[in-house]
């Protein structure tokens, strides 16, 4: 019985570790997308308004916005708010 309990606990630890790894990967991609959005707005004059006229920069900005929305869905799916509380490197903690 003792080895059975150890097996169950091992799966739980692996699940937590896997969720934390997924969270870190999604957050890293989201931070890259946020930096690219800022760059497009500041350096290339992309209009952040959703109804902005089409241009290469504005189209790229729309794609990044869609990607960040999907990343947000992924973060919510793994209940990231619980993991984020212990995220010591997030700029949101400053």
Task: Please write out the topology.
Layout: H1 2-44, H2 56-77, H3 80-84
Helix pairs in contact: 1-2
Mean pLDDT: 79
Q: Helix/strand-derived class?
A: mainly alpha
DSSP helix fraction: over 70%
Report the sheet-strand fraction.
under 5%
Number of beta strands: 0
Biggest β-sheet description: none
Q: Outline the low-pLDDT stretches.
A: none
User: Overall 3D geometry?
Assistant: elongated
Topology as H/E string? HHH
Entry summary:
74% of the residues lie in helices and 0% in strands. The protein has 94 residues and is mostly helical.
How would you characterize this protein structure?
Helices cover 74% and strands 0% of the residues. The protein is elongated and about 60 Å long.
Keywords, please?
94 residues
